[in-house]
Amino acid sequence: MKKIIEVVLGALLIFTAYSLLFANNIPQEIIGEHHLIDGSLDTKILSKGRITLAIDKDGKLEGTSAVNHYGGSIIIKNDSIEFSDIFHTEMASMDPELNELELEYYELLSKINRFEMNDNHLVFLENTDELLIFEKD
User: Most buried by CB count within 10 Å: which residue of 25, 26, 77, 110?
Assistant: First the structure.
């Protein structure tokens, strides 16, 4: 019985250490719902379609991308960020500009490697270039 308790406590200790070392620490200020207000996308077209992003405490994300719904996850280490496992529905719009906006948005997501939170704005960057600027709802 003593051996079983030692094994269980040892496993618990290892699990706790692993969780602390490799946890995806999502900063509190980026958790919540955001909508795209600016960035490298054509702002004239952006005004035609709404792009949103919601991030939860576990790094899961979801939103709308002008035409479709999407989801996935983010991995954060310090100020670096990686979007992974992105999936989306596959509807098309009758408006070709919205379809193009959505394709550009997904392409920009794949380039993002840093983020900053400035006031109420979540800014995604590729190195030092601002790609997408979201406002927190």
Answer: 26
